[in-house]
Structure formats: C-alpha cells, structure tokens
Amino acid sequence: MKTRLLSLLSFSLLLLVGCENNLEEKPLSFFEESNSFNTDKDATAAINGVYHALRNGNYYGMNVITLSDVSGEECFIRADGGSAEGIEIDLCRYTSANSNFDNFYTAVYQLINRANRVIDKVPGITMDAKLRDQIVGEAKFLRALAYFDLVRAFGDVPLVTTVSNDVVNVKIPRDPVDKIYQQITQDLLDAEKVVPVKYTVVSEIGRATSGAVKSVLAKVYLTRKDWTNSAAKAKEVIDSKAYTLFPDYKNIFLPENKNGPEHIFSVQFSCVQQTYGSAFAKNFSIHFTYPTDLGGGSYQSTDAHEASYLPGDYRKQVTIIREKKLANGTVVQSRTGAFADKYWDWTPCGNNQARNNFMVIRYADVLLMYAEALNELNGPTADAFAAINQVRARARNGVATAAPRDLAGLTKEQFRDAVLQERSWELCFEGHRRWDLLRTGKYLDVIRKSGIQAEEKHLLYPIPQNEIDVNPALVQNPGY
Known about the structure:
This protein has helices spanning 2-18, 40-54, 62-68, 84-90, 99-121, 129-154, 177-192, 210-223, 227-239, 280-283, 303-308, 314-319, 363-378, 382-395, 412-427, 433-439, 443-449, 465-470; strands at residues 75-77, 263-267, 299-301, 320-321, 323-325, 331-333, 339-340, 358-362.
C-alpha cells in the first residue's frame, strides 16, 4: 500500500477542492492547502468533496453491487455480458489480483483521506461554530461508513485518521478489527451529537442526519453482536417519527421519489450534470430496453431468488421481471432469465447515467434490524413481531388475504431465519446480502447450497495484490 495508497490519498486533496456534486458546493479555484481552509465556503466545499467520493463508481457504483449482492445467492453476472473479474467474484474463483478489490480499496481510502482533511482542518476556520461542528461531524460519519465497508470486506485494515502527505518510505500495517470498530463507533457517536435531524434547504438534502448516524450505528452494533445497543439505536430511529414506510413498495425506487420518507441515507446521483448519473439502471435492465440506446445489462436475479417469494408477495411483482414494456408499447422479452427492476429510470441522463440514488440504508432495514436485535436478546418479543410484520404488511399491497401473512408463534431460531429471509425479499439488490449472510454465520452454507464451492477463506476478501506489492508491512488474508 505504501507509495500507491498514500500517493492516491495525497492526490485526493487536489480533487477535494476541485470537484462538484449534487449538494451544490462551490468548488475552490485553487489547490494550495494554505489557501483552502480559511472560510465557511471552504469548509462546505471540502465536505462536499467527501460526499462526492461516495459516488465513485468503484465505491458506491456497480462495484458495491458486485462485492455485496453478486457475492450472495440472489444476484449473478451473466457470463456472456459481464466482466470476467465480476464473474470470478460471483463464482468465488477470485484472487488478490482481481481489480474490483483494488479499485474498491483505493476509492474508499480516497474518501477517508478527504474526510481526515476536513476533520483536521475545518476546526481551525473562524466561522459559525454550529456549522463548523456539523461539518466535522458529517466527515466523521462518512469516515465511519467507509471503514465499516472496509472492515467487513477485508477484516484488519490500516487505520489512517490523519492527513496523508508523505509518500516516501511509508509502511502502514493492518490494524485489528476491534481497533477499527472502536474508531467507527467513536466517530458515529461524535457525529450523532452535531448533525441535524433533517435539512430544509433543497441543496443540502442528502447530507448525513442524526437518523442516518443512528441507523448505521445500529448496524455496526448488530454486526458486532451488541444486541442491546443495536436495538436501542434502532428504536431511537423508530421513535423519532422522522421516517415512515412508503405505502406502496414500488414507490421506494422511483427516481422521482428519492430522498423520500423511507430513505434515511442515500448516495446522491442525478442529472445535474450528465456524469453525475448512476449506472444501476442500465446494468440491471433487459437488453434492448434501456431508453438511451436500447442496450441492457448483465446483472440478473438468480432463478432461486425469483422462486423464493411466497405466492402473492407484491415485492416480487415490483422487483423481478422477465419482460419490459417500453414507452412506445413494445414488450421486450428477456432471453436470459429474470432481471431486477428496482433501478429502472424512464428518463436517464445518458448511457449508463441514470437518476437513481443508491440507498445505503432505509427505514425498512431499521425495522428488520430492530426485530433481529430484539430476538437475539430475548427471543421473538411482541415488539420484534410488530417490527417485522410492519414490513410484511406492506408487501401485501393492501390485500388482507395476500402473502406474506403476519408472523406469530415462532421460536428464536425460526424467527432468526425469518428475519434473514425477510431481508432477502425486502432488500435484495440493494447492497446487503453478503454482509447479512456473514453477520448471521450463514454465508458458507447458503453459497454452497447455491452450487458455488465457497471456502473458509472467502469469508474475507483478499487484500489487493497491488497494495501488498508496494507495502511490505501488509500481510495477506489466509488462503490467498
């Protein structure tokens, strides 16, 4: 990682002050650090640069789908259209040379370095104290999210919390998982105190809120099997009344509804500039349907996932398609099986550039986390049933006799399995599946049952070989 990572991180300063994103920052017109952190406008430009790094295609672009959902049993990449390295991940045949890992690793550390610079430099700016603290809190939230993504993927990783400038003879070893999680938790607790409950200025919607911080913290605690704190944080989000489920499941995913009442934190994509669009719509679309070029993608639902839904579950109707009716009335049949329709956009910005946000966390996820944590604490309590049944009730789409029916009378183990299955139906193709299976200890069993020869080593991804090559302080994960 030595020269490679730190040169990337230092170079990110140049990008930090020169980039623009959906949050309407006014980027600085010069790059010297001494001239870059003097005013509140500089602070705003800097934090917007951190948000901008989320939108990197190697981070919260299609790579997040490849590393999370494709690595599960719900989603696969078709061999005749997808990248060879994506298919290697799908089939657990990857090595440390796979560029998806390297691209993800470096993109996440680029964001971390931008966040570190905000955390280090913004407190020294003479500006409104509340805004200054909020911006630092946002940077801590984003740094915590980045490290959470890294540690779940790779295990031990270098913990870098200071600005990286020196790229000469630098060796950075991996820090243990526990230390990484301590930093993640502290960053989130710090951010929780200073970020607002909501934003009212249109250009600021999409920034981190206290609900977003609490929700991610609930998931961090859940991953660490701290059921008490996970349940408590999830309940704080629920009791805040700041979020509700969309009454109609399909409305969650319409680009026109993004940043709606169910969306707690999303990576912002749009047509503000054509290059600010997302690639999800095309990559999940049936060939000959994507509006700009009648192209299509190679990311599809597995047959097993399609068959897993209970008869009548409205979520299957919304999510899984084998044909698409175009605006001119033409119906295009899939020639390659089931596709996922969550990311469809009728009016994208351009080829591989659509308006869909990426939902990092939404309210249904919080309800299911709450149910899971309560069950692990005390078995399936009334509140645990109420939380999961709220999600299931919407899936009936107003038809009282439809599936899925409310759950009742389950044992602790049955309820645990029911929550994991519910997360599959509710949150499929949204970047959760690998992490859910790992967290619950089900990954190897589920992947092997799908016909893929997963091994113990596949519980972690390999440290990218490019990083190993330039940093002798890094030690590879076992088996790679």
